[in-house]
Fold this protein.
Amino acid sequence: MMDAQDDLVNLYRSLFLIRRVEERIAEIYHTDKIKSPVHLSIGQESVSVGVCAAMRPDDIAFGTYRGHALYLAKGGDLNAMISELYGKAAGCARGKAGSMHLVDMAVGMMPTSAIVATTIPQAVGYAMALKMRGSNQMVAVFFGDGSTEEGVFSESLNFAALKKLPILFVCENNLYAIYSSMKARWPADNLCDRVASYGIPAARIADGDLDAIRTAASAAVTAIRRGNGPQFLECMTYRWHDHVGPGEDLHIGYRTAEELAAWKAKDQVALTGARLAPDVRARVEQAVEDAIDAAFAFAEQDLFPDVAELHDHVFHQ
Amino acid sequence: MMDAQDDLVNLYRSLFLIRRVEERIAEIYHTDKIKSPVHLSIGQESVSVGVCAAMRPDDIAFGTYRGHALYLAKGGDLNAMISELYGKAAGCARGKAGSMHLVDMAVGMMPTSAIVATTIPQAVGYAMALKMRGSNQMVAVFFGDGSTEEGVFSESLNFAALKKLPILFVCENNLYAIYSSMKARWPADNLCDRVASYGIPAARIADGDLDAIRTAASAAVTAIRRGNGPQFLECMTYRWHDHVGPGEDLHIGYRTAEELAAWKAKDQVALTGARLAPDVRARVEQAVEDAIDAAFAFAEQDLFPDVAELHDHVFHQ
Amino acid sequence: MSSISENREITYAEALHEATVQEMERDSGVFVFGLGVDDPKGMYGSTRDLHTMFSPDRNFDTPLSEDAMTGVAIGAAMAGMRPIHVHQRMDFLLLCMNQLVNCAAKASYVTAGAVAMPIVVRGIIGRSWGQGAQHSQAVHSMFMHVPGLKVVAPTTPHDAKGCMIAAIRDNNPVIFMEHRMLYQLRGFVPTEAYEVPFGKARVLRKGRDVTIVGISHPILDCLRAANSLDAVGISAEVIDPVSLAPLDIDTIADSVSKTGSLLVVDTSWTNCGASAEIVAQIAERFAGDRAVRLRRLGYAPTSCPTTKPLENAFYPDAASIAQAAFGLLHKGEEWRPLATEAKEITEFRGPF
Amino acid sequence: MSSISENREITYAEALHEATVQEMERDSGVFVFGLGVDDPKGMYGSTRDLHTMFSPDRNFDTPLSEDAMTGVAIGAAMAGMRPIHVHQRMDFLLLCMNQLVNCAAKASYVTAGAVAMPIVVRGIIGRSWGQGAQHSQAVHSMFMHVPGLKVVAPTTPHDAKGCMIAAIRDNNPVIFMEHRMLYQLRGFVPTEAYEVPFGKARVLRKGRDVTIVGISHPILDCLRAANSLDAVGISAEVIDPVSLAPLDIDTIADSVSKTGSLLVVDTSWTNCGASAEIVAQIAERFAGDRAVRLRRLGYAPTSCPTTKPLENAFYPDAASIAQAAFGLLHKGEEWRPLATEAKEITEFRGPF
Ligand SMILES: Cc1ncc(C[n+]2csc(CCOP(=O)(O)OP(=O)(O)O)c2C)c(N)n1
Ligand SMILES: Cc1ncc(C[n+]2csc(CCOP(=O)(O)OP(=O)(O)O)c2C)c(N)n1
Ligand SMILES: [Mg+2]
Ligand SMILES: [Mg+2]
């Protein structure tokens, strides 16, 4: 068993890594070195980190285009990620896929998708395969509040519950789908009730709290491994930056400064960091900064794929 | 206000008409005069009849390929229906569409569809148009239990509830989708709970009882006209014949003779007929038989459309 | 292939069944699912009893959720399984386009090959009679349009078995097109497992004057048409492409360089259809060198009507194929071959 | 059209906005909906402030439910409304195929004209840079395949306005294809309402030696290519089909009968694409009479990569178009026109 301090260090390393990687992306975005859209998770880190901390390394994660946090929390290769954003050949998809399709099969991070809700049934299919094989691995699938409006979400819940599959559904509810608030999309704010009607235990964690998310996820994962079928978590959270791209977006007017400030006050990166002894924290942060520097340097010097690669991988051999 | 006796006569006429039309279809099907699939509602008549009795003639109905009952209950033209099944030119679609796409715009019977669940969002769209125009008409949409598994069903409920649209959702739950029982498709038999989670009042009528269906539908229609938004009814019912075609199907083995017998014992056509004075009943039945004879004779002598018509109506002028 | 096996005749549906059984025995990752696959009718027999021969989780019914079930197939494939997803009507694939086109087709590419996508999607073309507008469509050209998807349309029991085995073993999504009017067709089928490689067309009949390519069920009418063309002195070469993506254009081009004329008959509309692609490729290839005569035939440019007289006019048949081939060679001249309905159509009985 | 109005220059996005406003004023049944249509960006300005100019129920945001929302459009149309359903990416239309192909396209036919289906479906092609495999597709050929659907792809502000008005007034489903790189294009647009009739192509540039047809945004590169072809003595005629279904093949055929050569450049894959259809129709028409030179150009047969060097190779551009035209006329010879990136691409800045 890991001691509590090590555990906290690991959690903070993961949170801080995600935060700083995305801040660096935002900083350099104006240079156009990343010629592809980026959807930042700044503000939402605790969901991926909390849930992944409850999973085993050999468990499987599915996510979305807003996938940097999950990719890193699941242990995805940092250099491969930054090179991918740069469109370089050492990228996790040799530069062919960009930020919206991160993948690292070695750590169970499945390819993300730019089409909302598409990975939800895929995660269910993966979980079905695990069950067919008698594996005791499990699958977690992360998706936004907007995803739950797509019919395929309901179809997926129904099938996963019917077959009692080993899957944890994680809704990262950041209150908005692009600039559209929940009120414009949901008749009632009771997603968990709806999910529960499929016989899937469902709980909301209201404030993004890392420990609460991890605790709930751990309980869910335990139940899943016992063969009890799917579980559902609705993690309330908040995106600080614009829906896409590096910018802030209060000027657009679809949300208030107060709302943003209230969530910033609950920043899990800062709060978790504050729980560490200052010297420990400093060491963790320095190591992370070094890794990030190295990753960006790696991507800078990496080469673009050869034009002939355009035709590779259309079909799998 | 219509007196109770007249009312019962009307209900029975409608039930008996549907039953006998479909029995006639089953009788002649082997002749191959109807060269197109038919999905009979025998056993399920009370749902369409009960709900339509609660609606106004200018209200709108959407249904499915299992649409004979609804078409007739809504007042659709019998001759046009039989000619359509025969593929003749006086058919409601000039013989081009067959049993699965019945339509009679004059009585608010919208075109049915052979693709499961497709008319559900269409009905929602029609209801939205009514609301936009400030009309006090309403829409009822009929669909099978299998339809509720399609994602578009959930999407439609969500949107109808969000916009508080004047629509009554009617699930004709006949326990099966083709030969697949509910158990193979639903993790729990609690559809109404799920629907209620959208804020849509939902009730199940367990036994196909005509009066119960009509009473529930009347209450729902009243609430809808008050502007309270959508309502939902799950009407349990039973299909006596095979999923498609004229035959019985117990030999296939997917359901039991007991189950069928239990539902036949609740036959709403017989039970309703028994509530009428024998002479009244005989008169109603004779009139229906005459109308059916006339319709089949009409279809027999009707001509096939000219081959040149193949190219008509691809585009609307 | 042993001589014993070559003497055995089975139906197209039996050939599909046998292929599936053999692959399920070989590889425990192969499973079959879709609406009704485990019902007593077993998809015209092609999936019959697989759930008892193997286990109920290797041949199972699903809720009506085509979109999610396609995603389930994709996810299972990512986990190393080899799912076969069966659709009673190809029209229902229109519910699966997002997963198939946006996800399955791109899985290998956007992961630079880290992810394989071995899924087979069986789409049955609902034609018989009276199926109407929504139960008769063949949308193979929509899939042919998209890189990353393979599309096959075998027409003989032999190719049905071999293509199914090849499709199951393929690491890419394969859309497997089956025409209902072929299920009862009988032919020689080896008992052992074998693959029919994709991208290899078959010359079913040799001829000098015109090349006729038939896709799926129409190939039967093309052969019938070829016989009636003989009567007017036209010798037709008939080619079955078998696989549409990849497409063996070389075999077709070789034939056309001999005959100078090409008629492509599809079981769908011509506009942006498979027939457009074949004609366009041939036209590009001979571009400027030789004035080859080219013509397409397919569904009438309308929805499919149910009433028999219009339905007959909607579909190409042996007579209209023969006539089109004749017209290609004898511009302006008229010839009306005897129209007889194909026996598999005439013999069809409802309800569905 | 008045001379005043003809002197006014506005952008493509403004032209769409103006068309929509004018039709919304004319007919209270016209409304606009889709993800984000009432947000401050207003679909590149094309729907900006319509909810305040009219009312919030005539320009509204929706849940993420493309399939149901398409059904909603269809149902509203059945009730006599004229919905305009906007999609930020044409890729999302793959979620709408069932309703569009199985229902909307067939509504008139299966009711023998009792039901009209006046819906406009706006699909924005996401290209700029780095959009990748799932945000760059143009699936117009899938719709062209299906009788009952109309498909238009205007490229000038003038045609954008006129086609939008015609689409709204049309009693049939119209797929309205818009390429993001066109929104800022400026051009003369009359102030009054007018229709650009479907099925009429435009000859944008006269030429003698080769006909180049460009679909959507590529038309700009076709015009650039025509200029560089001048330098090597090749006179190119450039045609914008404007509407793809119906397609004005006569105008293209007239041009080809003059030039003897046709290059079709599409903003999608060639396989079973719009370019296949145009080439096939021309090939059939000249069949046997004349050996015309035919060639297609479109996306590379791969998914769309994000990294710039591969993305540049994925799309046709002025240089590759000029080169293809040159190759059509001078078989075997090599010529490498100067490659310069189109200004609307070079000037593009992210994030999206
Ligand atoms: C099927 C589909 N529809 C629309 C879009 C455009 N889109 C991209 S992200 C997004 C919002 C999704 O919101 P949510 O699921 O809450 O995730 P978030 O971005 O908030 O993390 C939309 C509408 C898309 N990518 N896919
Ligand atoms: C989208 C779609 N999937 C599958 C089918 C094939 N199919 C036709 S009817 C049917 C069963 C539908 O069951 P239910 O909704 O309960 O209606 P019922 O037939 O029992 O009235 C199925 C699977 C179809 N027509 N459409
Ligand atoms: Mg969100
Ligand atoms: Mg049912």
